[in-house]
Structure formats: C-alpha cells, structure tokens
Amino acid sequence: MSAPYNILRSKLARAIVAYLIEQGAGTAADISPARSRQPKGYPCTEVIPAISRPEVQFAAVRRITVHISIKGTASKATPGEGLDAARQAFDARCAATYDALLVGDGQSFQATADAITDAGRALAVADPTGNADLADFTVQAWYEQGEGEGTAEAEGCDWEEVLMFDAICCGSNVS
After folding, report:
1. pTM score, whole prediction
2. If we measure between CA atoms, which residue out of 103, 75, 100 comes closest to residue 89?
3. Which pLDDT belongs to residue 2?
C-alpha cells in the first residue's frame, strides 16, 4: 500500500485552484493545476507544487513549495485601449490572486490555510469522482515566500509573475 502523502502535491494544487476560482481570481477556464492538460490561453494562472519535503520525519506531513504562475499578453489588448489597459488588467489579476492568498490576522496566514482546505473539501463533495481524495486533505499552515518575474518564455506570453508560498499539508483531516 502506498504512503498516504504520496500525492499531496496534486491535492494541494487542486485545492488552491478551487480556492482561487471561489475567490474570483479567475475561472475554471483560465486557472489550472500544473498537471492539467487544459489548453492555456492568456491570461492564465497555473498552480505548480514545486517541491515537497518532510516537515516531520516518518509522518505524512509535508512542506510543499508552491509557485503560482500568472501569465499575460499584450496581444490581448483591446483595440483603442492599447498596451496600458492590457498591463493594468494583468496587474489586477496578479493583485487579486495575491490578495486571495494572503488572508491573515497580522500574525499568520492561517485563514488562508483554512480556506484552501475548505475549498478542497468542497471540491471533493462537488466532484467525488475526480476529487474524492481531497475529503481528508488539510493545509495546516501557509507561508509567503516572495514573488518574482517569470521567464515569460511560452509562445505568445509577454508577462509572467510568479508568487511563491510554502504550505504545510497532510493527507488526513486534522482540523
């Protein structure tokens, strides 16, 4: 039998996607987990669980570094509005995403961790065929790690902002 934490990165990505959609930072058509085969147009947001490390040895508790990649393009500028409007729309999307992921009380981002957990569990109820494994998933803590300019190397992509976080997760309901 496989370890209960072996797909925590996938679970975390799907829960974050559900949360960002719930918060209005995008739609199911333009926010996806990294393992999605969904075609990507611009603007788009991709949730990439980069690396997973044991937070507690010999336990199913992992610290997962997550990159949230937001991509946009100047070619989507509305005629007559120009590049500035496209950039402002991209900046607004980045701000909405960042704001959704930084809900806290001035001491921690526990509210964000709880909201991501809740969104994942709601997805398990809404789609038990594809997401039943999120029913017991828990984000125990959420930490901001920074932000940076992405490479924007994808065809047609002019801008990429990468938001970085660490999540402490476990595959059991510990809330």
Report:
1. 0.90
2. 75
3. 43
